[in-house]
Amino acid sequence: MTSRAHVLLWTDSTAAYLDAIKAAGLADRVLVDTLPRREKPSAEQLARTEALMAVAVPPGLLSAMPKLRWVQAMTAGVEGWLALPDLPATLTLTCARGTHRESMPENIIGALFYVAKPYAAAVENQKHNRWAHSVAQPLTGKTLGILGLGAIGQDVARIAATLGLRVIGTRRRPEPVTNVAKVLPPDRTPEVLAESDFLLLLLPATPETDNFINAERLGKMKPSAWLLNFGRGHLVKDDDLIAAVKAKKIAGAVLDVFRQEPLPADHPFWTTEGIIVLPHIGGPHPQRDRVVARLFAENLGRFLDGKPLREVVDRKAGY
């Protein structure tokens, strides 16, 4: 009988992952340890684990796992993993790219409606029994610029095009994309900034994208444009965005991700008029564990069969 591979699920809710392993017919081929995130693996677990699934690990842990060959990150962003000083060069790292597709596009479209339609003002006026007539701004005919036309960006483009928005954007490999009028390479980002009525950030966190939206790039946007960041908090230079909104160089911003989360109570984003703070609601989904579990189970089967894994992280690109 072939020996079973040792797998460690280091997360708080493991039921969906165990179910997915069973549904994929892999239960008899693996020995699974489960461990809550607040606990640390035992020496025995560290010594025997060959495949690990986790949100994150502390520095020094991976170097104590001599049999580890594959890590499945539970999120699309892997900047924390890539920053580990002991990340082995030969370790295969896969991410959960694409598992936000059931929730994030809807939440991004919701943000577009929020800034274009007067619903928030109407709710506030209702608290004071105040009838204040206003005119909703149309989305039809406006331009949505997307920096980072990956899976999420393409889903947003599909919905946005249905609503009558013109979609443009950037992509590392600028092949044509359905529902996108103009796909440009990253070095033509200024064109997207200048044309967009709404600018959506979906870029990964890499050294090249840190502080990507700064005073210079904000200055290329329309004074009537809105910035929407559903990518990574490090994409935006906080002080420059606050200054641009206060000076009305742009109309405002909807931010769902931040450099530090939870956002500190004394951060000026909270009190800057024109900046809307969302508590990282873009990606979470009531059934997201099941979505990630399907990806994990498929990759586990590939791992056991010696086949190429899905969503392998390109360490040079940073995602």
Describe how the helices and strands are arranged:
Blueprint: E1 5-10, H1 15-23, E2 30-35, H2 43-48, E3 51-54, E4 70-73, H3 79-82, E5 92-94, H4 104-116, H5 119-126, E6 143-147, H6 151-162, E7 166-170, E8 182-184, H7 189-195, E9 198-201, H8 215-218, E10 226-229, H9 238-246, E11 252-255, E12 275-277, H10 288-305
Parallel strand pairs: 1-2, 1-3, 3-4, 4-5, 6-7, 6-9, 7-8, 9-10, 10-11, 11-12
Helix pairs in contact: 1-10, 4-6
Quick overview:
Helix content is 28%, strand content 16%. With 319 residues, it is of the alpha/beta class.
What does this entry look like structurally?
The protein is an alpha/beta fold and 319 residues long. The chain has two domains: 5-99 and 286-305, NAD(P)-binding Rossmann-like Domain (Rossmann fold), CATH 3.40.50; 104-277, Rossmann fold (3-Layer(aba) Sandwich), CATH 3.40.50. Helices cover 28% and strands 16% of the residues. The strands form two sheets. Strands 8-7-6-9-10-11-12 form a seven-stranded parallel sheet, with helices on both faces. The chain has a five-stranded parallel sheet with strand order 2-1-3-4-5, covered by helices on one side. Helix 4 (104-116) packs across helix 6 (151-162). The longest helix has 18 residues, at 288-305. It is elongated, with a radius of gyration of 22 Å. The model has no long low-confidence stretch (mean pLDDT 96).
